[in-house]
Amino acid sequence: MPSAAVPARPRRRALAAALQVLAGAVLLAALFRAFGTEALGAALGMLSPATVAAALLAGLVATAAQAQRWRLVARARGVRLGFGESFAECWAAGLVNLLLPGGVTGDAVRVLRRRRSGDSLPEAGAAVVGERLAGTSILLAAGVLPALALGPWAAAGLGAGALAVGAAAWRAGAGAPWRDRAAVWGLSVLSWACFQGLFLLAALATVPGAPVGALWGTTVLGLAGMSVPVGIGGWGPREGVTALAAAAHGLGGGTGFAISLGYGLLALVSALPGAVALLRWLLPGRALSSRRGG
């Protein structure tokens, strides 16, 4: 009986991933059906050298903040990481998260790589989960006030989610000095600010004449929508939430859909340098050395 259960686990995981992709694809198809393909044209039209440069800068700062946050949480769990190593790992993981279902595959690889480096699997896993949850709690908390435009139930739900996720992140850093704990939350706010600024930039470039307050509330909620583990790298839930938020803020669902597509493109650009670090995952050091020698 146990031997039959073991091979069933990969099948269940594959089925879950397939359902995530299917749900995201269905949602995106419904949104394109509702708002048309013009939204994609508007998103592509806001790409320029200036917005691409801003995306790369935002990705650099946000990844550095995440890397240091990971180091601090990991240190509390007895896992030691150098900054250069954590930075490269986070950048590669960020790109993988944007390309594969669920948005956490890259983080799972981070855990496995730490295990292969000799760290305890439970502690390595707790460190990665803890630092990700710290960031997620900020996404949810930031959306509480803008969610009032959707209704008190939405604001209450985000607030409750932020508290629950934040408590789990706090427990993951148990034993860390207060200075490290404060730094973890400060770095989480910095990382959020980078991507929130990028989302707002996409909004301003897509609908330059819209009220900034409405764009701010819409994009904050759109970023919070990325915490839903469905679709591919956030695509799907983010667009749905942003369209709903834009309608609630008087911008129209189609406008929100276009803004979210634009942000998705910029987010992908911001993670592209992670492809260099990703090569270290796909081509281990010995393979690279042999190629240099050949």
Automatic annotation (TrEMBL):
Transmembrane region(s): 46-65, 150-170, 182-207, 213-234, 265-283
A Pfam family it matches: LPG_synthase_TM
Checking InterPro entries in the record gives: L-PG_synthase/AglD
Keywords, comma-separated and alphabetical: Cell membrane, Membrane, Transmembrane, Transmembrane helix
Membrane topology per record: Multi-pass membrane protein
Q: Does the keyword Cell inner membrane apply?
A: no
* One cellular-component annotation, GO: plasma membrane
Protein's UniProt keywords contain ATP-binding: no
Q: Where in the cell is it found?
A: Cell membrane
Question: What protein name is recorded for this chain?
Answer: Dolichol-P-glucose synthetase-like protein
